[in-house]
Amino acid sequence: MDEKIDVQSNTVNTARDTAENTADAVGRDIAEINEKIDALISLAEENQMMIRNLYQRARMATVFIFIKWFIIIGITVGSFYYIQPLINNLVGIYGGLTGGTGTDLFNLIKSI
């Protein structure tokens, strides 16, 4: 009878050891999975920050391009507005030199 108890207690102890080893292995696996999840979360946050910076730079580039073209068009229109009296004077001088009124040249410039 003692032998049966020893065999049974040995089997029970072996089962207990196996259960403890399995629990330890599961605990290590869970800890490893948690570490990987934390690494993935930090990587996702870093990616989100980089994407946000890219969108912000794209918006700023769009604003600067709009400002650049506004300045270019403004300078073109403004220069034509301020240069138009000089063009009129040159057309008058040209008309005086050629003996005509200069309206042909003035009409040519207006058509452009």
Q: What is the β-strand count?
A: 0
Radius of gyration: 44 Å
Helical run tally: 2
**What structural category characterises the helix and strand content?**
mainly alpha
Tell me, briefly, the overall form: rod-shaped
Order of helices and strands: HH
User: Between the first and last Cα atoms, what is the distance in angstroms?
Assistant: 120 Å
In total, the number of domains comes to: 1
Major sheet: none
Q: Roughly how much helix do the residues carry, as a percent range?
A: over 70%
User: What proportion of the residues form beta strands (DSSP E)?
Assistant: under 5%
How would you state the average pLDDT, rounded?
Answer: 79
Low-confidence stretches: none
Outline the secondary-structure elements.
Blueprint: H1 2-98, H2 103-111
How does this structure look, described?
- The chain is rod-shaped, with a radius of gyration of 44 Å.
- It has 2 helices and no strands.
- The chain has one domain.
- It is mostly helical and 112 residues long.
- The N and C termini lie far apart (120 Å).
